[in-house]
Structures are given as C-alpha cells and as structure tokens.
Amino acid sequence: MKFHLDTGLIEELSNLEYFIVKSPVNTPDFWKEWQEKYSRAFMSKVAVKKLLRTKKLGYEDIKRYRAMLDTYQELVEYLENIKRLALSLRGIYEPSEEPDPTDDDIDLDF
C-alpha cells in the first residue's frame, strides 16, 4: 500500500511541476514564465467551472472535477503569492500591505 501511495504522490508532483516558476524573481524571464503559468492555471479553473455548470455529469465526474477545481484554485493562489513577493522585492505593495505612515511603532531619530 505504501508503494502505491508513494508512486501516486510522485505522479501528482510530476503533474504539478509545470506550474513551478523556476526563473529568479529579479529577472524579466520571471514575469514571462509567471504570466504563462498563471494564465494556464486561471483558464483551466474557468474551464472546469464551466464544465461543472453546463454538463450533465455523474457523481464520480463531479467529484473529480471539484477536486481539479480545488487544485487549480490552490495553484492560482500560489502564483499570486509569488507575484506579491516579486513586487514587494521591487518596493511595490498592495494597498492593504503598505506600511502605515502614522504607525506609532516607527521610531525616527532626527
């Protein structure tokens, strides 16, 4: 049984490996690779949602597509986190992440 689970895990990792952004975040290739992978994950999520809404599917198919939808959602979140990291390294923050200029914890010695 353990061998079966290990091979299943290896197979899943192999399937998900495509979505790993391998280019360093400080290179132009990062954004090209990120956009390609994000677009693929996002559009796959849209396609699965459409299948679930428009096709008459059996219970097993619905279960399988919902699992796929969860996977694509996690991939989109992973890619969005990487994007936020890359932007923050350039000093660009989302509005909710920007430091508060009125924060009393900031001590400035002049």
Please sum up the structure shown:
The chain is an all-alpha fold and 110 residues long. It is built from 3 helices and no strands.
What does this protein look like?
The chain is mainly α and 110 residues long. The chain has a domain at 26-93. 66% of the residues lie in helices and 0% in strands. It is built from three helices and no strands. The longest helix has 31 residues, at 59-89.
Question: What shape does the CA trace take?
Answer: globular
- The gyration radius over C-alpha positions equals 20 Å
Q: Tell me the helix content.
A: 55-70%
How many strand elements? 0
Keywords:
mainly alpha, 66% helix, 0% strand
Annotate the secondary structure layout:
Layout: H1 2-16, H2 28-54, H3 59-89
